[in-house]
Amino acid sequence: MKISAAVLRGPDDLYNIEQLELPEPGAGQILVRIVASGFCHTDSVPRNAPAGAGFMPMITGHEGAGVVERVGADVSSIGAGDHVILSYDSCGECPRCRDDQPFFCDQFMALNIVGLDQHNCSATDDAGDSVRTRWFGQSSFATYALANVRNATVVDKDLPLETLCPLGCGIQTGAGTVANIFGLVPGQSLLVFGTGGVGMAAIMMARALGAETIIAVDIKQGRLDTARECGATHTVLAGTEDVEAIVAAAAPSGVDFSFDTTGRPAILLQALNCIRQGGICAQVGGAEDFVIPTAALNGKMLTRVIEGNAVPQKFIPQLIGLWKDGLLPLERIIKTFPLADINAAEQASADGSVIKPVIVPTQA
Ligand SMILES: [Zn+2]
Ligand SMILES: [Zn+2]
């Protein structure tokens, strides 16, 4: 079928809106009419990855949500008309998938980052050339996308998909880090560096779980104001205020947990230094390798987060419950853009002027 999609053709190219031919859903696949798809920093990874140019042309977008149009012949658990929120893909067959830990799937990189699937299914442009259409098993910056049963979560039809589509990656990652990796309980403390979508979701979840102290650090005062509305009890304007002094005053022996969403080595070290003995420091994003002084790890745990250790079909319904209770105020961080304005959305995501841009293909 004919679709309109935002195609990335080279590392430094703008997205180009093109008409492509998308194949019919194959085994295990569903065809989804995309209602909305959030812009996540990871969508810019193909631009920067050393092999990035080799992945293109590709349609990105991996926080898609929409309405199922048709399903593959063997699909029975999802049907036409179902509303779905899409997430990361997994193989379903490796030991980690069989152990209900699809976020640790052996095939994670191949199924999510490369933009192809095991059948090399792809879209076709006017010249007859293929365009990769399996980014995170969805490539949802398009009017329609092929997804798999495994990376789709069926949700109630009365839910606003423009608001809830980021549950599939950024929000799940931030909230899942706090709930699933830290296992935060009432009275504990959290320090978050960077109040983008992931950091803000961590703050919202920490408040929902009863954290007593939630310290948000950012370089933008406007985002810190939003962080307060979302649950931060303390804010630190980096570059102007002293993070370690404010943490020492709020939690003299260190915070229980810290979360670096900036991906910067110096910040990660600061995040490690600010937790107490026995605390956990988590990091997401960033690709720069560096050496951590061993003393900084004394009695502490450090992990790099993948999708917040969340199983989408279980965690997304929990997050929807929190949203209904007013504990996940995503409306405060979202701004919608039409597909034609996707380059402005990427810019707004990169410069931080919009915390969570959401592409709405039908928006004029
Ligand atoms: Zn697997
Ligand atoms: Zn993402």
The helix/strand order is EEEHHEEEHHEEEEHHEHEHEHEHEEHEHE
The beta-strand count equals 18
**Rounded mean pLDDT score:** 95
- Measured as a percent range, the helix fraction is 25-40%
Report the portion of residues in β strands.
25-35%
Shape: globular
Low-confidence stretches: none
DSSP summary: helix tally = 12
Hetero groups: zinc ion
SSE layout and pairing:
Elements: E1 2-8, E2 16-21, E3 29-38, H1 45-48, H2 52-55, E4 58-59, E5 64-71, E6 83-86, H3 95-98, H4 108-112, E7 122-124, E8 130-132, E9 144-148, E10 152-155, H5 161-164, H6 170-182, E11 189-193, H7 197-208, E12 213-218, H8 221-230, E13 234-237, H9 243-250, E14 255-260, H10 265-273, E15 275-283, E16 301-304, H11 312-324, E17 334-338, H12 342-351, E18 356-360
Parallel strand pairs: 11-12, 11-14, 12-13, 14-15, 15-16, 17-18
Antiparallel strand pairs: 1-2, 1-4, 3-5, 3-9, 3-18, 5-6, 6-10, 7-8
Helix pairs in contact: 6-7
The structure holds zinc ion (2 copies).
One zinc ion binds next to loops.
